[in-house]
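[Discussion] Sanity-checking designs against the backbone

I'm trying to build intuition for which residues belong where. Below is a structure token string of 147 positions. I'd appreciate it if someone posts a full sequence so I can compare it with mine line by line.
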């Protein structure tokens, strides 16, 4: 299990194989062909060279070893990984913009996306499950459960 950090270096989620888990271990999203989907089947962004990017291609989170994007900050020592829940069976994702269509547009960006205030201050549960608890800086629109 590998930690995922936000643009300030705080641990905000975990990647286990192709499943992104919240800090408490609940499955929140999955990766298919570099696209990131929530469990409602909506594409929420991209996983590219160690960066999680929103649907516009802006970097919103990163992992150790990332390359080809903004300079990642020094990150905290991640907490002990949680015991993960069994993820739900992923739905068949909706057809969306292909990774190739996005590559030329934004994936080479060298600055962090400045996320609007609506997307700041929410816990990963809010981003992934549209919950109400607000305590993290993980980008909301990346994983909310709407297609």
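Best answer:
Here's mine. Compare freely.
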């Amino acid at each position: 299990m590998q930690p995922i950090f936000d643009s300030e270096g705080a641990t905000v989620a975990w990647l286990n194989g192709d499943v992104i888990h919240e800090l408490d271990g609940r499955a929140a999203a999955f990766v298919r062909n570099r696209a990131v989907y929530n469990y409602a089947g909506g594409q929420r962004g991209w996983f590219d060279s160690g960066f999680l990017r929103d649907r516009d291609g802006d970097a919103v989170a990163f992992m150790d070893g990332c390359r080809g994007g903004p300079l990642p900050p020094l990150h905290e020592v991640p907490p002990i990984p949680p015991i993960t829940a069994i993820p739900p069976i992923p739905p068949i994702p909706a057809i969306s913009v292909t990774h190739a269509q996005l590559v030329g547009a934004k994936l080479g960006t060298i600055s962090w996306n400045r996320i609007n205030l609506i997307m700041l201050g929410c816990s990963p549960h809010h981003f992934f499950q549209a919950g109400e608890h607000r305590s993290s800086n993980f980008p909301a629109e990346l994983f909310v459960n709407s297609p």
